[in-house]
Amino acid sequence: MTVRQPADRVRVLVALGRPAVAVLFALYTALGLAQAGRAEDPSLLAACLVPVLAFLLFSVCVNDLSDQAIDRVNLPGDRSRPLVTAAAGARDLVRTAVVAAAVASAAAFLLGVRPGLLMLAALAVSAGYSLRPVRLADRGAVAALVLPACYVALPYLLGLTATGSAVRPRDLLMLFGLYTGFIGRILLKDFRDVRGDALFGKRTFLVRHGRRATCLFSACCWTLGGCLVLVTTPGAADAPVPAGAYGLCIAAVVLILRRLAGPVGHRREEALIAGTAAIGRGLLVLQLAQLATAQAGWSLPTRSLLLVVLLALTLGQAASMVRYGPRTGLTLASLPPDDVATPVATSRRSAAAGRAADGRPSA
After folding, report:
1. I need a surface site. Which of 163, 169, 176, 221 has the fewest CB within 10 A?
2. Strand runs (DSSP E) across 228-335, as ranges?
3. What's the longest Cα–Cα distance across the chain?
4. pLDDT digit string (tens) for 129-153?
């Protein structure tokens, strides 16, 4: 990448890798392996994470390139957006996307034909989500349904098929539960982006239906997804500790969404959404712990104690997020203007200048 120092290259790649999203991808991949009975196979997990994380890098680069103008409105100065902060140029992201797609495809086919074909399909869907003429991201509810398919189905199914096992109806029902729960999460992302989405005609669920309906639909997705995951995780629904842990987490999310549905400031809004994200990650960790410890033959009291500890950590982190909001320590150095400028960027700056002269909002 055209950045000043090698350390800056690493920081840009970390920012593009979206660490929080990468953790989700890793958890979904591990859940796929665990559902296939391979929870204790770290070498296979590592082999699966290579194509999965390369796919994530490809998706982020393509999306950031397509949404650069919107991100300048929604996320000015956001250090997780190298194009917005001028830490990287458009050509850098194009090259990164091409390499990431090649790595994702090759590494997936090394795992087998089914993982390879699955990866090719996911790359096509991800490109269609961001790029014109398809550009599913602008199609409101369709975007909220398609994005979770990439973020949940790919890592989960790749982990599942990499073991060579058949995909059973129970596996698909668990996938549907994970998918539904993630829809509830991804709808909340639109609160952060609502200003730019409305300005550029991006008809998200929030823009079309408002915050109260969005929070209500999100709560329904969280609840349905949690119930489906609970009943498809072996031994979870019949044991009081896993069932109680899931119930408490879903109840906490519903309370947060109730607060979010009312009038709150931007900073408070961001903190509330961060709290739901912490609970979402915690639910995945609880599910993975239930599967892994059962396969390892842990006794019921020991498994229950571990789940109680994980539940306490999850709710504690969520409470901290709700109170203080998310934090980041990543700093990206900006490029010289000549390295960042592209014909597209130049035309957007000219358009923004024209809007400013006419008294309209500028991107």
Report:
1. 169
2. none
3. 70
4. 887 777 776 666 666 677 788 889 9
